[in-house]
Backbone:
């Protein structure tokens, strides 16, 4: 069964460093998403991406964050100058459709980011 | 504002039935999703409702009342592997998912 893959599974970084989280969405999917889940808290939407551009972003997704689809398969989230409060699980998701109601998003296993 | 409410934790017995409730308030509404999340793993899709009524899928059923802003997930014949968090998420008018904090379901033998 096709799945969303994310690497690395765990990333440890020093405060102020830049990190890149990688995702390979399901191959025939066109819409991609990043979510964040701080330990013990709810899943929070960061950004959605379609046709090589951001379609929606939340208040969390400020200038510290950027997304890119550098080639036909990868979808990355870059966090510049990481802060302690960026420590969380970051989930990538993809879906076949976007702006329709029954838009089932499939999630990767996540990257746990620890900022020290 | 947009808000999803669901109980923090529930406990049930193996073989029994449990109902997890969810109430939502969103800007527009394009459906209600339930996801299952085992600890440290990704959320996995369980069900989707956009019309009022009950959707049944094996041991799991999901109900929606749009007028009440209310949904529930019903799990029958509980198994130990059903121990997980169950996330309620409503899709708003921008097709964004607004997530609840999740209900941790503990199954006891």
Residues:
């Amino acid at each position: 069964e096709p799945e969303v893959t994310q690497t690395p599974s765990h990333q440890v970084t020093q405060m102020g460093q830049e990190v890149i989280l990688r995702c390979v969405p399901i191959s025939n999917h066109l819409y991609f998403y990043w979510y964040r889940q701080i330990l013990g808290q709810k899943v929070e939407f960061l950004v959605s991406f379609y046709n090589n551009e951001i379609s929606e972003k939340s208040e969390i997704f400020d200038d510290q964050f950027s997304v890119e689809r550098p080639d036909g398969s990868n979808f990355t989230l870059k966090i510049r100058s990481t802060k302690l409060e960026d420590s969380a699980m970051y989930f990538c998701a993809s879906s076949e459709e976007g702006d329709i109601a029954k838009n089932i998003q499939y999630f990767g296993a996540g990257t746990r980011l620890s900022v020290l | 504002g947009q808000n999803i409410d669901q109980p923090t934790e529930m406990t049930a017995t193996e073989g029994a039935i449990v109902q997890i409730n969810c109430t939502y308030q969103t800007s527009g509404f394009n459906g209600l999703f339930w996801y299952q999340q085992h600890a440290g793993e990704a959320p996995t899709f369980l069900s989707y409702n956009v019309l009022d009524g009950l959707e049944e899928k094996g041991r799991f059923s999901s109900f929606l009342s749009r007028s009440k802003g209310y949904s529930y997930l019903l799990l029958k014949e509980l198994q130990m592997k059903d121990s997980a968090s169950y996330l309620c998420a409503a899709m708003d008018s921008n097709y964004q998912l607004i997530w609840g904090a999740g209900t941790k379901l503990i199954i006891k033998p």
Q: What stands out?
A: Chain A touches chain B at residues 4, 41-45, 48, 56, 91, 98-110 (CB under 8 Å). The mean pLDDT of chain A is 92. The first strand of chain A starts at residue 5 and ends at 7. DSSP finds no helices and eleven strands in chain A.
